[in-house]
Design a protein that fits this description.
17 helices
Length: about 650
C-alpha cells in the first residue's frame, strides 16, 4: 500500500510560499484543477519539424486545457410556492425569486426576512411537484371549484387563517395525497388549463434566468411517487430549452394519467426523447424515507427484478441525491458498524408521512453504500448494475431559497425559516410521531466537474457522473483511479493534469489490470472551503463482492491532518480534536489542514472481484445551525440538540469489473 499525505508546503514546493497564503487565491490559480495533458516532446529551434507528438507542451500549464478546471456548484432540488405542499406551509416566493437568490441577489423570504447567499450558485433546478401543479394558488384564492368541495373549503379557510391552522392544513394535504385520498374534484391534472399554464410559467422562468456561461437555470420537475407514504421521488432534469420541454407536460404519479411505478416514469422519459429528440435524466432521492423500497434487490411493485428493470434504471438514473435537509443518506450505523463516521445526521424514524415506523430490515434498501453493494450482486445475476450511480447533494428546500450554509440556514419550509423557536417545532408531525425541528439538516450541494456553465455541459457531466456531494461546504475534491499513479503524483501542484493523463475521474470505470500491476492506484486531493473548516481526513470507501456472491465494505484512511499516528491496535486515526466555541458559534482553524493529497493503492485487491471505490472527505468540527440560532436568539438549547457538525463530501464511485 502506498499512502502519501502532503501538507500545504509539501504540495506547494514549486511555488513561492509568499503567494500561497490565501486558499481563495489557490482556488483562483487552479491548484486543484485540470491542465492540458500532452505527450512531452523534444526541444528544437526548427519549428517546421514539430509535428504530432513532437510538438512541445506549452510553457503555460493552463493553456489548451481540455478538461473541467473547477467544480460548478448548484442545487438540483428546490421547491417554490408552485408546489402545493410548499405553498400550504406558507411559501410565497415563486421561481423567478428562487433564481434571483441563487444568482446571489438579496431577496425577502416568505416570512419577511432579508436573505442572501455568501456566494452565488452556478446552476439551479426549480423542481416543483408535477402532481397538483398549479393547485395551491387556486386553493388560496378560493376558486369556485375549490369552494364547491367540502375539503377544499376547509383547507382554503385554514390556509388563509395562517399560523398553526395553516400548518395543520399542510399536514392534512400531504397525508391525503400520500395515502391516495386526495379529493378527485381538486386534482390539478395534465391536460387541464391550470396545469398547462403553470408548466409554461415554470419553463419561462427558467428560460429567463438562464445565462449560458454565467448561470444555468435547468428546466425540471419532481415526480412525487408515494406508495402509502413511502417516498420514491425523482427529480427530472432537461438538457433542453423551452422549444422541446413544452412539447410534453410532466409525468405525474396519479392514475390514470400517471403512475407511482418508476418503470412508468422511465417509459415517459423514453417517449419524451423519441418525440422531441431531447434528453432528460432522473435523480432518485431521499431513500431514507422509502421504508425499504428505494433500492430493491428482488422485486418492485409486485414484479421480479429482471434485465429490463436493471438496464432501464441504469440508463435513466445516473445520479443519487445522497444528502439533503431530510437526513444524510450515505450509510447507517446499523449497516456500517465499523465506520465511526456512519451516524451522521441520521433520519431513521419512518416514511414520509410517518404512517409506518422504521425497522432495521428496511435500512439495507435505503442507503447509498448498501445500494452500491447490492448493485454489484444484481449485475452478476442480471447482467447490468441498476445502482451504478454518481453522488450529488441538494436541498429539497420548500422555501424557494437554496440556503444551507450553517450560519445561513432557512429551513425545510417557511415554518422552519429563522425564528427563536424553530428548533422546538416539529419539521413534520403525524399523531404522536414527529421529525423534530432541530433535526433538520443544513444540507446539501451538488458539485459538477463540467467544462462550461451551460445546460449541455453540466447535463453531460451529470450523465458521466463526474460529480460529488457535499453537506453544505464548498470544498474542492478530485478523485482519479488508474494503474500507474505513484507517490510523486501526490507532490504535483496540478493533480488533475496527472489525474486525467494517467487515469479516469470519479464516475468512471477502471480498465483491466495492466501487465505487471498488482492493484489499482488512486489519486485523491481536497482543498478546504475558503469560508469553512480545515480538513480532518480523506477516506476511500471500498465495496466488493467475493467469489460466493457476498458483499463487503471497508473504510481506509488515506490522508489526514496534523501528523496523527494510527492506533497500533485498531489501525484507526485518532480524532482530530474540536475547537468549536458553541456559545459564540465560532471555531479555530488551528487544527486540521487546508489541503490534503495522497496516492493510495488498494492493499486487498483481488482482480477476480467486482468492486467500487469512492472518496469521503471529512472537515474538522464546526458550529451547527442550531449553535448559530442559540447565539443569535439568545436561547439555551436542550442537551439533546446537536450543536456541532462535521461537514463532508462524497464523490461518485469508480468501478472495477473483472
Amino acid at each position: 500500500m502506498t499512502r502519501i499525505k502532503a501538507k500545504p508546503h509539501d504540495v506547494a514546493a514549486a511555488i513561492p510560499k509568499r503567494i500561497l497564503i490565501p486558499v481563495s487565491l489557490c482556488l483562483s490559480l487552479g491548484l486543484v484543477q485540470t491542465a492540458f495533458s500532452s505527450g512531452g516532446g523534444i526541444v528544437t529551434d526548427d519549428k517546421s519539424s514539430l509535428t504530432g507528438d513532437d510538438r512541445p507542451e506549452p510553457y503555460s500549464p493552463y493553456a489548451q486545457r481540455s478538461f473541467p478546471d473547477k467544480p460548478l456548484w448548484g442545487d438540483t432540488h428546490l421547491h417554490t410556492a408552485i408546489s402545493f405542499d410548499a405553498g400550504a406551509f406558507g411559501a410565497r416566493l415563486l421561481p423567478p425569486d428562487a433564481y434571483r437568490f441563487a444568482k446571489g441577489e438579496e431577496v425577502i423570504s416568505s416570512t419577511g426576512q432579508p436573505a442572501r447567499l455568501s456566494r452565488p450558485l452556478d446552476f439551479l433546478v426549480v423542481a416543483d411537484h408535477s402532481d397538483n401543479m398549479g393547485f395551491f394558488p387556486k386553493l388560496q384564492e378560493g376558486a369556485p371549484y375549490v369552494m364547491a368541495d367540502e375539503n377544499g373549503r376547509k383547507w382554503h379557510n385554514m390556509i388563509n387563517a395562517g399560523g398553526q391552522e395553516a400548518v395543520d392544513a399542510a399536514a392534512e394535504l400531504i397525508v391525503a395525497f400520500s395515502q391516495g385520498k386526495f379529493p378527485k374534484a381538486l386534482e390539478s391534472l395534465p391536460g387541464t388549463g391550470v396545469y398547462r399554464s403553470t408548466w409554461d410559467d415554470l419553463i419561462n422562468a427558467a428560460e429567463e434566468a438562464n445565462d449560458p456561461g454565467k448561470f444555468t437555470a435547468f428546466i425540471g420537475y419532481e415526480w412525487t411517487s408515494l406508495v402509502k407514504g413511502n417516498n420514491l421521488h425523482r427529480v427530472v432534469i432537461y438538457r433542453d430549452n423551452a422549444d422541446r420541454a413544452k412539447l410534453m407536460e410532466p409525468y405525474t404519479m396519479t392514475p390514470p394519467l400517471g403512475s407511482p411505478n418508476p418503470r412508468d416514469l422511465w417509459k415517459w422519459m423514453a417517449a419524451y426523447e423519441k418525440k422531441t429528440a431531447g434528453q432528460v435524466l432522473a435523480i432518485a432521492h431521499n431513500g431514507n424515507m422509502s421504508n425499504g423500497i428505494m433500492f430493491p434487490e428482488a422485486e418492485s411493485f409486485g414484479r421480479k427484478l429482471d434485465k429490463d428493470y436493471v438496464e432501464k434504471r441504469a440508463r435513466w438514473e445516473p445520479l443519487y441525491e445522497v444528502t439533503q435537509i431530510k437526513g444524510d443518506g450515505e450509510t447507517h450505523p446499523f449497516l456500517s458498524p465499523n465506520d465511526e463516521f456512519a451516524d451522521y445526521e441520521t433520519w431513521a424514524i419512518g416514511n414520509l408521512d410517518l404512517s409506518e415506523l422504521k425497522t432495521n430490515k428496511m435500512l439495507k434498501y435505503e442507503y447509498a453504500r448498501s445500494a452500491l453493494k447490492t448493485g454489484l450482486q444484481l449485475e452478476k445475476k442480471l447482467g447490468a448494475n441498476p445502482y451504478k450511480f454518481g453522488m450529488i447533494g441538494s436541498t429539497d428546500s420548500h422555501t424557494a431559497l437554496a440556503a444551507v450554509e450553517e450560519d445561513n440556514f432557512f429551513g425545510k419550509h417557511s415554518g422552519g425559516e429563522p425564528n427563536k423557536d424553530r428548533y422546538l417545532h416539529p419539521m413534520a408531525k403525524v399523531g404522536e410521531n414527529e421529525y423534530k425541528g432541530y433535526s433538520m439538516v443544513s444540507s446539501g450541494w451538488a458539485a459538477v466537474w463540467a467544462e462550461e456553465n451551460t445546460r449541455a455541459s453540466i447535463f453531460d457531466a451529470m450523465k458521466r457522473k463526474e460529480t460529488y456531494a457535499t453537506t453544505g461546504s464548498r470544498m474542492v475534491v478530485r478523485f482519479f483511479g488508474g494503474w500507474d499513479f505513484d507517490s510523486q503524483d501526490a507532490n504535483n501542484r496540478l493533480p488533475a493534469k496527472v489525474g486525467y493523463a494517467k487515469g479516469i475521474p470519479m464516475g468512471g470505470n477502471l480498465s483491466q489490470p495492466l501487465e505487471g500491476k498488482a492493484a489499482p492506484t488512486f489519486l485523491v486531493a481536497a482543498m478546504k472551503d475558503p469560508l469553512g473548516g480545515n480538513l480532518d481526513r480523506i477516506q476511500i470507501i471500498k465495496g466488493w463482492m467475493d467469489s460466493k456472491g457476498e458483499s463487503h465494505e471497508k473504510v481506509y484512511d488515506v490522508a489526514w491532518a496534523d501528523d496523527r499516528k494510527p492506533d497500533p491496535k485498531t489501525g484507526k486515526i485518532p480524532p482530530v480534536g474540536n475547537t468549536v466555541d458553541v456559545a459564540n458559534a465560532t471555531w479555530s482553524n488551528t487544527i486540521g489542514d487546508p489541503e490534503l493529497i495522497a496516492v493510495w493503492q488498494d492493499p486487498d485487491f483481488d482482480a477476480k472481484q467486482s468492486a467500487f471505490y469512492y472518496t469521503r472527505v471529512i472537515e474538522i468540527p464546526t458550529p451547527r445551525w442550531t449553535a448559530y440560532d442559540a447565539k443569535y436568539y439568545k436561547v439555551k438549547m436542550p442537551e439533546e440538540v446537536p450543536m456541532t457538525t462535521t461537514e463532508r463530501a462524497y464523490t461518485s464511485p469508480i468501478w472495477y469489473k473483472p
